[in-house]
Design a protein that fits this description.
alpha/beta; Leucine-rich repeat, LRR (right-handed beta-alpha superhelix); 13 strands; 13% strand
């Protein structure tokens, strides 16, 4: 079995990610965070031991020269670990799951230069910073106490999960270093701005359940196809640039968009096919679906419901009528500027 074949088993399914975002209250992340912050007791020191390693190791593979073999997968989750320094000597590890422990320091992972996949969810980490790991492709630090995005510079990293942390602003994510990152998960943080997510390779960006009021600084995300912004405080649709030319799916459910005219600001997204606006004030308008299609003719579905041909035909008529009225107004203004003919 090759590293690439084995790695496929660990990649999150895109359908699962979208389903998780689209189902209301599937996760009570605020309660999780509160419980985490209320933990005031000091945990008894519990270092990783050789016996735990023997139990957790699996997947025997050839090492670099092909002449020797080593176990390359380790699972030691839910062991109440506070120390993993023993990992420094297990340099052949490629897949490591240290989730649901009490770790505050994972610097021992810097010695695992063959690491492909890392899961460190549910610990007490305040940072995801590690030395550059040349082969790391998937890393998950969900539900920790991480406050920033500094020190993440792995060139082959494709999927990064920082869900359920305390991040207010994205900083230090260098597009010249993160040249392979295609999926960034930042749901359930405390983000107040989208500035700093200047990563042109991104295809999937999950920013639901934050404190965002608008979209800004995403104009260089030319490969972005999926953007989740559910359950924020967004009231304007400014910031969606024509540079976001690949965006197909946009979820804005549970925000504060009240004016249907804001939808016109999505006209410059040529590939936008699916839009979710449920639980925004503007959806209470009686002609909401029609207005959306008038402003965004390329839309195929709105709030999970596909548009019918008659919907599209009616929207085309309204759009044509609006165009004619606009032309008549321009002609009238032109005549007024010229003034009446002089004898």
């Amino acid at each position: 079995m090759s590293d690439e074949d084995d790695l496929e088993d660990f990649e999150p399914d895109q359908d699962d990610l979208e389903r998780e975002d689209d189902e209301k209250d599937t996760e009570d992340w605020e309660d999780d965070r509160k419980e985490e912050e209320d933990l005031s007791e000091e945990w008894m020191p519990t270092p990783l031991t050789e016996d735990m390693m023997k139990e957790g190791l699996s997947l025997l593979c050839k090492t670099g020269n092909g002449l020797a073999h080593a176990y390359v997968k380790l699972e030691v989750k839910e062991r109440e670990l506070t120390d993993i320094q023993l990992l420094r000597s297990y340099i052949h590890l490629r897949y490591v799951d240290i989730s649901e422990n009490h770790l505050t320091d994972v610097s021992a992972l810097n010695h695992l230069t063959h690491l492909l996949w890392l899961k460190a969810d549910g610990n007490r980490l305040r940072s995801a910073q590690l030395n550059e790991l040349p082969y790391l492709q998937i890393a998950s630090f969900a539900y920790n106490q991480i406050t920033d995005t500094e020190g993440i510079s792995h060139p082959r990293l494709g999927i990064l999960n920082l869900k359920g942390n305390h991040i207010r602003l994205v900083t230090g994510m260098d597009p010249e270093r993160l040249i392979s990152l295609h999926t960034l998960e930042l749901r359930g943080n405390q983000l107040e701005s989208t500035v700093g997510i200047n990563l042109p390779t991104l295809k999937n960006l999950f920013l639901a359940q934050n404190m965002l009021k608008k979209v800004e600084g995403l104009e260089h995300l030319k490969n972005l196809t999926t953007l989740h912004l559910r359950d924020n405080q967004i009231d304007t649709l400014s910031g969606f640039s024509e540079g976001m030319k690949s965006l197909q799916y946009l979820n804005l459910r549970g925000n504060m968009v009240s004016n249907l005219q804001e939808l016109a600001k999505l006209q410059n997204l040529p590939k936008l096919r699916a839009l979710v606006l449920l639980d925004n004030p503007c959806t209470d308008e009686s002609d909401y679906r029609q207005e959306a299609l008038v402003h965004i003719p390329q839309l195929e579905r709105l709030d999970k419901e596909f548009f019918e041909e008659e919907d599209r035909a009616e929207a085309n008529e309204i759009r044509q009528r609006m165009k004619e009225e606009q032309e008549q107004e321009q002609d009238a203004e032109t005549e007024q500027d010229i003034g009446p003919d002089q004898p």
